[in-house]
Design brief:
Layout (H helix, E strand, L loop, with lengths): L1 E2 L2 E3 L3 E15 L3 H11 L12 E8 L10 E8 L2 H16 L6 E4 L7 E3 L1 H5 L8 E5 L2 E8 L2 E6 L2 E16 L2 H15 L5 E2 L11 E3 L9 E3 L21 E9 L2 H15 L5 E5 L10 E4 H6 L1
Helix pairs in contact: 1-2, 4-5
Length: 299
């Protein structure tokens, strides 16, 4: 199949279940809200080696936040629920509570499968001076700190989400592939409930499970898609492709991941020099979700 002259391969992204938390970080200014959000999602590209997958979902203007201040919704994901709770406590405790003027509120709402007592547990930092309060109908805790007070909602919602949605942007050179990936990530940024957790939303080092040579490695370079190895391995790169970047997507559900893939691909194929769109999978052995590119295009 082709879109705007770009070939869309007959392949599917193999996605899998993951637990997701989605919460709002506000601050006195948009700048400090962004700083806290960026710190919170740091080292969150892949659970292959990172303690969680994480990313910024969207900006929320003051008119739509519980405390009337600018904020950003962030998502933190982990395959294990207890590990997700641990990550929330660590990331909010170390990256948000420590940031100037911040507050934290649940953003999962009624979509949550359950609530975790993150705010309740973090309140003990107040050493007995913390207070329970109500803000816009939410039960929050006010923790005294040197600069004033840190406010956090008592419970944050989590739910079963979907991780591992992906597609490759394959182009005539590295520059075209990078531009195609960038515009794809920008488009995905408008899809609520979906994140692209890798640096800048783009994966430069697409990997495969395990190793051909080193038994101690859980993941290694995907040599069949490395342009510099075309003459050394059984390459799967078409002759007109010299640059490849991957976009990986996590979402609050399968529909969010599908929509993110769809709009990302639609943006990427408009870039001059982009030749093909591909999706990576493990033959159905890794995850329960098979998101076929051809179905996205037909939609």
């Amino acid at each position: 199949m082709k879109i705007d002259g770009v070939t869309v391969e007959d392949s599917f992204a193999e996605a899998f279940d993951i637990f997701v938390s989605k919460f709002l970080i506000t601050a006195a200014t948009k700048k400090f809200a962004m700083i806290a959000a960026e710190e919170t999602v740091g080292f969150g590209s892949s659970v292959i080696m990172c303690p969680a997958e994480a990313g910024i979902d969207r900006y929320v203007p003051p008119s739509e936040t519980p405390d009337g201040r600018p904020g950003y919704v962030v998502m933190v994901c982990h395959p294990k629920k207890d590990e997700l709770e641990h990550q929330l406590l660590e990331r909010i405790g170390q990256c948000v509570l420590t940031a100037p003027t911040t507050a934290v509120f649940d953003d999962m709402g009624s979509d949550a499968d359950e609530k975790l007592k993150i705010g309740f547990k973090l309140k003990f930092f107040g050493d007995g001076y913390e207070k329970e309060a109500n803000m816009s109908g939410r039960k929050v805790y006010s923790i005294p700190i040197m600069s004033g007070e840190f406010v956090i909602e008592g419970e944050l919602g989590i739910k079963k989400g979907v991780a591992g949605g992906n597609f490759f942007v394959m182009a005539e050179n590295q520059t075209a592939a990078l531009v195609g990936a960038e515009v794809a990530v920008d488009a995905i940024g408008n899809v609520e409930g979906a994140i692209t957790p890798f640096p800048g939303g783009i994966v430069a080092s697409g990997s495969k499970v395990g190793s051909n040579k080193y038994k101690f490695m859980s993941a290694t370079t995907n040599e069949k898609f490395c342009p510099t190895l075309c003459d050394q391995v059984k390459s799967e790169i078409p002759s007109d492709v010299k640059g490849i970047y991957e976009i990986v997507i996590d979402g609050v559900g399968e529909n969010a991941v599908k929509e993110a893939m769809k709009v990302g691909i639609a943006a990427a194929v408009k870039v001059s020099g982009v030749k093909r769109i591909y999706a990576a999978n493990y033959g159905g052995t890794l995850g329960a979700y098979q998101i076929w590119l051809k179905d996205l295009i037909r939609e």
